[in-house]
Amino acid sequence: MQDIHVPETVPVEKSYYNLSAVQESLAQSPIFQYDENDIPRLVITHEPEFAQTLGSIHPDAFLFSKAVDLKLAKQQHRNFRETIRKHTGALVFTVREILLMGCDDLRHRAELEEFASHCIHYRLENGLKQEDLSEKEVALLDDEYKRASLKKMTDVQLVDVIMSQPTIIIEKPDPSKHFVSHKIEMEPLTNLTFCRDQQITTAKGVVMGSMNMVQRQMETLLMLHVFKKLGIPIVGKIPAEEGATLEGGDFLPGGSDICFIGCGLRTNMKAIDYMLRNDLFGTRRVAVVEDKWDINPDRLHLDTVFGLLDAHNCIVSEDIIGEESKIKRLVTEYVKNDISGQYEISVKEMEFTHYLRENKYNIIPIPADVQLVLGCNILNIGKGRIICTHETCGRLIVEQAMKASASSSSSELTSPPFTGSVHVIPFSEIVSMNGGVHCASFVCRYPPDAQFVTRMATPGFGPMSNVPNLSSPVLSVSHSEHTLPPVSTTPTTKTFSAPLIRGVVHGIASLGNQ
Ligand SMILES: NC(=[NH2+])NCCC[C@H](N)C(=O)O
């Protein structure tokens, strides 16, 4: 037997000790999203890695617009995550981090192995059939054999297997000899970076979507596994088997009264009907924004042409604006009937920006060339704080605000101007995969009536990469219905302007006690 050497001090990997704290923190209140303008409490994303290099070998076939410089992509992605953490105090994780979390507990380790075992396939090729194989060879194609290999792998190896989805091609060039393999086929999760798309998070909670493109279908199963691990409930599932397709990039919630859902290239009416019939949107009105004439991968989801800055202001790609536009979008609005509880059509096929104006939104048009590099794909991190990846777009937003505050009347605007902040970050390498900051983030948010109290965090729990840096000033959020438990630290009287979220601190406080 091999000698097992146990070092005197065993360093604990960061990823091992925070799963229960994260689960505990998330269990404090329901997981949902009322409004793009609410503060995020959890953000899940996926840092580009080897699968994205594989996608870069043929960008077009893997739904990218260009190849990715992986080193730069990683830097830009880390900066993106840090920016969200710094401004919101939200829990920000990558899919890989979540898969690795808690794997020192055999239960989570075994679940990861089990998931990985479904990602591995063996295929006989060149006319080789199961009946041509010896008993010994048949045993080598068995699930048990697969599982024995997975048991031996490290947690990181298991995640690598999941990300690459390998099929081992087995042949027998010489029938008198043992079989061989010199080829592995992979279905790598090339587009997993866009964690927005596998599901939608409405006022009701997380609804698992159904991805339109074959390149992306496996991603939904992986996200389901991730949600299960974090203890996030799933309130619905789009029936893919009935031909319904729905991707999260088509969904933008605008408060308890209204949400917007795109219908076109990736999301179809079957899925939207399913959502309406099962009351999965949770808003009084649902605006279905139909793309009838464009159907172009450059504008594949609603979030590539439209973004909500706050309750009164939005950005829209210039080329889809107006009755004359050849690629205009049309809104059919559904309203919930108070008596029957069913949704009924209240507006039929109204031009999108006309509809937005009728609903008192000020529109900031974004030039089409800026849209083409995902300039309209912004991420609202709550209370009008916008992460944006194109300076022109950022400046147009800011100019509207400055113009309005300079002229006391702000006459051209139907509603109060944007008063928030804009943070421009570099994101070119993720944009190369044809998505921006909105596409790249699964977000659930605090309830709209969460209250903000400025307080200072007590130092001494950090630093940890997965949680907000507590040495920086933070703001706590509390909410009447979902009151979070008190923080087990002593708040000081010092006041700062940036945020600390109590649920998160609670999670960290438990970590500190472990
Ligand atoms: N929410 C979004 N706009 N996501 C963009 C996804 C881009 C990805 N390459 C795809 O084609 O699926």
UniProtKB/TrEMBL annotation:
Superkingdom per UniProt: Eukaryota
UniProt GO BP: L-arginine deiminase pathway
Enzyme category, top tier: hydrolase
Any GO MF annotation of the entry: arginine deiminase activity
Record-linked SUPFAM superfamilies: Pentein (SSF55909)
The entry's keywords: Hydrolase
EC number(s) given by UniProt: 3.5.3.6
Name of the protein in its database record: Arginine deiminase
